[in-house]
Amino acid sequence: MLAAVSTPSCSPSPQATVVSRDRDDACPGALRLHAADDGALARIRIPGGVLRADQAEVLGRAARDLGDGELHLTSRGNVQLRGLEPGCGADLADRLESVGLLPSWRHERVRNIVASPLSGLDGQGFADVRPWLRALDELLCASEAAARLSGRFLFALDDGRGDVAGLGADVTLRAAPGGGAWLRVGASDAVAAVRFEEAPRAAVLVAEVFLETTDGRAWRMSELAGQTGVLLSETVRRLPAAEPTARPAWRVTAEPPYGPVTAPDGTTSLSVLAPLGRLTAAQWSELTASAVHELRLTPWRGVILPTVPVSRLPHLTAVGLITDPTSPWVGVGACIGRPGCAKSHADVRTDAAASLTRADGLPVYWSGCERRCGRPRGDHVDVVAKDGGYQVSVIHDGFTRNTNHNPSSLAAAVTAARTHDHSHDQ
Ligand code: SF4
């Protein structure tokens, strides 16, 4: 059956208007290392953030043997190794490949997939998205065209609870009540209903049509202003079956809670936060030792340990992982800053740690410069280092508000910005 979508039904323009770029996408990967001030950096894509325990052990050993020993979680649930020795690329690739972390060298930078980290563990959502995750990753790696995607193009697989649906992915699949799925293109209103088992193929088709439409000149769906609906219509036209739909309400929820998570059958899983996404060798070893069969890295720089008893929580707390949902670390993020990044005006991680206060309210993100690498989507407090000080602003409904330049007390300014009621701000 041909799908009906909330968008015009015609072929996409072969002359799609896209941003003209004068450089290639230089996004780092596991095979394309980035030269940082603290050594080479590798970004290893972990689709859905799901790591088997043996894969986690190999990553930890690689960090210790080749890098500075730490693992850094990204806002897409990927892992970065820093401080890598020059010339270690082949050794790193061998280690990753030996445990299935490099299933396709040509696709290693395009396996950007976030997935609801608690899917199937807490009785929430409408479906377990793990079958989608496996199928999407396999289809991506089998698609010659998809190898041309930029390292920034993002897929989101949401089990219906609305967590990763709010992360601004280029293609989002969201489980629907009653066993179906919604397919959304970018942040637009371009939404179609697809059959659950058809959904991963539909997501890859969107990416392939995107590449055809832009001839590989665009990196993200947001560069196709006004054309995402046409792109979706062309995608759905090629699907063997789909169901008509009206655009659903796109409710978005917050990050997973920290501490024990209980399933309807009483089984527990553990949810922990890595302060600023940085995991020491001791913390990673404890997580790996606690895992029963896998770890799930979250886009909020946390780790879920599925089906692990509550008795492991004190071990995780003892190495400095956050297991208390009221911790002042919850909602605090930062880029790498000094000394790892030459562009940074400050050691933002140290300054963020020194400014911690308990603040129920907006998340806060500290950046060492205006690029704001890794900043969150949606409303948040934006703290940016400048020449000679910091600027604290509130990002609310896409607008920058209440900017405070060089406040006399950073901690007080950040807390005030996080807890102020911004709903009446103009
Ligand atoms: S935001 Fe600026 S300082 Fe921070 S990592 Fe990115 S480029 Fe470096």
Task: Describe the model.
The protein is an alpha+beta fold. Helix content is 23%, strand content 22%. The chain has 9 helices and 20 strands. The strands form 4 sheets. It has a 5-stranded antiparallel beta sheet. A hairpin with a 2-residue loop joins strand 1 and strand 2. Helix 3 runs parallel beside helix 4 and helix 4 crosses helix 5. The longest helix has 16 residues. The radius of gyration is 21 Å and the shape is globular. The termini are far apart. The N terminus is likely disordered. Bound molecules: iron/sulfur cluster.
Give the arrangement of secondary structure elements.
Elements: E1 34-36, E2 39-44, E3 50-52, H1 53-66, E4 71-73, E5 79-84, H2 89-98, E6 113-115, H3 130-142, E7 155-158, E8 171-175, E9 180-185, E10 191-195, H4 199-214, H5 228-237, E11 259-262, E12 268-273, E13 278-279, H6 281-290, E14 294-297, E15 302-305, H7 313-318, E16 332-334, H8 348-354, E17 364-367, E18 380-386, E19 389-396, E20 399-405, H9 410-419
Parallel strand pairs: 6-7, 7-8, 16-17, 17-18
Antiparallel strand pairs: 1-2, 2-5, 3-14, 4-5, 4-13, 8-9, 9-10, 11-12, 12-15, 14-15, 18-19, 19-20
The protein binds iron/sulfur cluster (SF4).
Category by helix and strand content: alpha+beta
Percent of residues in beta strands?
15-25%
Q: Low-confidence parts lasting 5 or more residues at pLDDT below 50?
A: 1-15
Strand order of the largest sheet: 1-2-5-4-13
Helix content: 10-25%
Mean pLDDT: 90
Instruction: List the helices and strands in order.
Output: EEEHEEHEHEEEEHHEEEHEEHEHEEEEH
Gyration radius over CA: 21 Å
Sum up the overall morphology in one term. Answer: globular
User: How many runs of DSSP E, i.e. beta strands?
Assistant: 20
The molecules bound to the chains, other than polymers, are: iron/sulfur cluster
User: What is the helix tally?
Assistant: 9
Largest sheet: 5 strands, antiparallel
